[in-house]
Design goal:
This protein is mainly α and 183 residues long. The protein has helices at residues 3-28, 31-48, 58-75, 99-115, 118-129, 134-141, 145-166, 168-176. Helix 2 crosses helix 3 (58-75), helix 3 (58-75) crosses helix 6 and helix 4 crosses helix 8 (168-176). The longest helix is centred in the first third of the chain and has 26 residues, at 3-28. The protein is globular and about 55 Å long.
Amino acid sequence: MNADEERQFREFVAARSRSLLHTAYLLTGDWEQGRDLLQTALAATARRWSKLRDREQPEIYVRRALYHAQVDRFRLLSWGRETVTDTVPDRPSAQGTDWAETVVQRQDIMAALRRLPKRQRAVVVLRYFEDRPDAEIATILGVAQGTVRSQTHKALASLRAALAEAGPSAASSSTASGRGFVA
């Protein structure tokens, strides 16, 4: 990679890493694993940066690398044995939000998302959390648009069933933001 290509890559990472980290978190269900996954995908992208055909859309390449790296990590038997914990905030929010209920809702949603097969989870993340169209999702995952639609349908049915089992708190959180899974 020459100096100009390195500068372009660094600019891309600086501009898009926050969004990519969010995607990695949603794919893994854990911030630390998401950071590791993003680093793996960015390292793969850096190695191929000078060979990318379409320099205008490197994000598609990185998102595809994220998805494939996640699939590879699932295949490793030792992956996921560590448990990472966050620190509890010192002060509650001034909004008066019931944080306990919010945590339970998020846990239910993330648990339901983690139970989805890898491709269905990737489709849900790309569609509902990143608001990407079918054509772009198909390009990122390397599948047909019909596959994206069928995987979305199956994933939504699974999520509805899982959230119904979890109780009304999880079901209400998935629709409260207007970007929920219940269609």
